[in-house]
From TrEMBL:
Residues 6-181 form the Exonuclease domain. GO terms for molecular function: exonuclease activity. InterPro entries: Ribonucl_H, RNaseH-like_sf, RNaseH_sf. This is 3'-5' exonuclease. The keyword Nuclease applies. Keywords: Exonuclease, Hydrolase, Nuclease.
Amino acid sequence: MSKKEIYISVDIETAGPIVGEHSMLTIGACLVYQPEVEFTIMLQPISDKAIEEALKVSGITLEQACKDGLPPTEAMSNFENWIIKNIPEDSTPVFVGLNAPFDWSFINYYFLKYLNRNPFGITAIDIKALFMGATKCCWYDTKSSSIDRYVQPSLKGDHDALHDAQYQAELFRLVYSIKLDS
C-alpha cells in the first residue's frame, strides 16, 4: 500500500538564478487542498551576489534579508518542522510548483546543504507540465497568463512567496480537475 500524498505548493523569491551562488530570500508554502495552512519565512543571504532584476521582482533587498531573515539552517529547520506538523505520519509530502524545476532546485540545495536531507525527496510536480499534459498545448502556452485564461483562478500572483504559493495551489487544483474528452 502506498503512502497518502499531501501536495504542498511552494514558491520562493531569490537574489538570482544560480543555486548556491545566489541566495534564496523567501519561502512561501501552503497545503494545496487547505491553502489556509500556510508557511512563510525570510532567509539571510548566503552571499552578496545578486541580479538587480531578480531583487526588483520581489522588492526584497539583501540588506532587508540580512536584517529580517533567519540563518538558512534555522529557516530550513522551521520549514521542515512545518511540513512534518502538517502532514499525517503515514503520508509523504509532494512538492508542487509553477516552474517547479527552478523553485525545487533552490529548496533541494538548501535542505541538503543545511539539514542533510530534503523531506520532499528528489521529485516535484510542475504545474506547467501538468497543464501541458492535461490540455495537450505547446510549451509556450504554459505561461501562467495562458493557464489563467484557461482555468480562471480567483487569485493572482504578485511575487510575494506566500501569495504565489496560494495562487499556485489554486492553479494546481483547477488544472488537476480538467476532464478531457475521450
